[in-house]
Amino acid sequence: MTRLFHISDIHFGLEDRRALDWVAQCIARERPDAVAITGDLTMRARHREFDAACHWIKSLDVPVTVEVGNHDLPYFNLIERFIDPYRRFRAIEGLVERELDLPGMAIVPLKTTARAQLRLNWSKGNVGAAALRQTLAAIDALPAGTRAVVACHHPLVEAGTRGKALTRGGNKALAALASRNVLAVISGHVHDAFDLIHPTKNGPVRMIGAGTLSQRVRSTPPSFNELTLHEGQISVRVRNLEHVPTRDMMIEDVPENALPPRAEGEPVAPVAAVPEVDPPVY
C-alpha cells in the first residue's frame, strides 16, 4: 500500500500559516511515502515567496515532487517572463525535489502553464503539443507494470468548481492519456477538491483535484488530499481544517443538465449538493 499526500495552491505571500503548520504536523506524524505539490507555490513568483516555499518544503523531510503553476511565473518582470519564465521555479525545484520510490506507481508531470496566450487571461490552462508529447514519452518509458499518475496544475476539463481552468488542449490531452491507461490525473488551481471520471473517445480518465492551503479559499476550507494506492486502485480522502467529511468537501459528478452556471465564475451548485431552491439545475 502506497500513501501520497497531494497538496496544491499554497500561495506563499498569501499563505494560511495555520493550515501549513497543520499539514506539516500531519506529515511529521504520519510519514506518507511522498508529497506531490501541483503548483502555485507562490502568489506573485517573488524571490522571497519562493524562498519561503523552499524553506517550508525542505522542512517536511519526506520525498517531494513539485509542478509549476501559473502563479509561479514572473508577474512583475515581463522581460524575464518572456525570456526565461521558469528560471525561478527550476531553482526551487532543484533544491526541494527528491527521487520518489512508489511501488507500482510513478508520478509523471504535464505542463499546463504558458508564458503568454492569445487571450487576455494568461492564468488559464494550456496543454501544448510539445508538453503532451513529453508526458506521453515519459509514460511509455515506465517499467512494465508501473501505473502513471499524471500531475499538472490546471484541471484538463472543467470540474464544476467555482474557479475555472478553461484549459486549451485539455480534451485532447485526456484522450491521449486514456490511451495510456493512466491511473489518475491530479491537479489544483481551482482551490476546491473534486474526484471525477471523465469520458473520452479512448475510455474514461479519473481526475482528482486538491484544494488550497492559502487564504484564497473559495467554496471549502483549506485542505489537502490523502491518496492511497492499494491493489492498483486509488482511494481519496480530503483532509481539512474544519473536519468536514470527504463527501461534503468534493465534487464527485458534474451532471450534464447542471451546466453551465448562469454566470461566469459561479459554481454549478454547493459542493457535492444540488440546491433545493433557486437557482434550479439547467
What's the structural blueprint in terms of helices and strands?
Blueprint: E1 2-7, H1 17-30, E2 34-38, H2 47-59, E3 64-67, H3 78-83, H4 87-96, E4 105-109, H5 129-140, E5 147-151, H6 170-179, E6 184-187, E7 193-198, E8 205-209, E9 223-230, E10 233-240, H7 246-249, E11 250-251
Parallel strand pairs: 1-2, 2-3, 4-5, 5-6, 6-8, 7-11
Antiparallel strand pairs: 1-9, 7-8, 9-10
Helix pairs in contact: 2-4
Order of helices and strands: EHEHEHHEHEHEEEEEHE
Number of helices: 7
Instruction: Tell me the strand order in the biggest sheet.
Output: 4-5-6-8-7-11
Overall pLDDT: 89
Q: Specify the overall morphology.
A: globular
State the share of residues found in helices, binned by percent. 10-25%
Could you tell me the number of beta strands? 11
- Derived structural class: alpha/beta
How far apart are the first and last residues' alpha carbons, in Å? 42 Å
* Uncertain ranges: 274-282
Q: Work out the radius of gyration.
A: 18 Å
**Beta strand %:** 15-25%
Q: How would a textbook summarize the main sheet?
A: 6 strands, mixed
